[in-house]
Amino acid sequence: MALEIGCIFPPTVDTPEHLALAERLGYAYGEVFDSPTLYADPWLTLGRAAERTSRIRLGICCITPYLRHVVATASALATLDAVAPGRVNLVIGAGFTGQHMLGRGPGRWADVEAYAGAVRGLLADEEVEWEGAVLGLRYSARTGLRVPCPVPIWIAAHGPRGVGVAERVGDVIMTDPSHGHGARSAVLPVFVNIFGTVLDEGEELSAERVRDAAGPYAAFQLHLGGEGVVSHLPEWADYRREIEAIDPRRRHLETHRMHLIDVTERERPLITPELIAQATHTGTAAQVRDRLGQLDADGISGVLYGPQGADIPRELEAFARVAGLAGGR
Fold it and tell me: Over the Cα atoms of the chain, what is R_g?
């Protein structure tokens, strides 16, 4: 199998140790989300992880053009590259919870394209124009930082407009096959996100461990509503009734309260075996291995696996074994 295998986390105070474990298991990439109302700071998380690792590539997935000024992002990347040289990447996208938790919708693709170009230019030691001002990085040698500082820029894209932006300003496309219109490119490698749990021998989808480990992503598909893969299930209809009863001014706060890290009490009764089967990539070792083989056959370049639940090490180890990583055998 030619797939590159990485992992992706909602950052917590424990994530640096989980990234160190991922490196020992053989994962090639370790990404963390950027949603400051929900998770620990991604830059501090990756800085701590850099001190615990020496090989795994580290990145944030994904930054939007609105949460962080372009100079702040470029400076953080240059700093991280100074402590983890040559193993830093950045994913930029239109945003989901990073936008919704601010009471906003996804950003404009024109802004994503401009932001990616400005970050790349700053890291190339160029002067760029941003919001009417000319900007540039001016690091003294005493800082320990350097420019040019080449950092691969990935674009989170789930349809043709995003792919077009990626092909103009990106190095890699990152997508989630469960929503959007799909992302394929003739010129860029494509990575996909995979969420779910590898079942133990004889384990059922109704097991509490499975509900804990697969529940956060299953709940995320409820959050997507009519745009997700579970819009035809009764669980979605039940969830919709519950969530639409909330004051619209606060609805975003409750919808995304436990985004990709846990489930709320409102969601818990809806995490059924049927929802898990439809919404996640949960399966036996053979089923998950077949899924990876199909992605490989479809020309996908890599996978970012998102371990969830109370036992992140168990999830990382089980997926590493299925994927044939050296440390998982």
Answer: 19
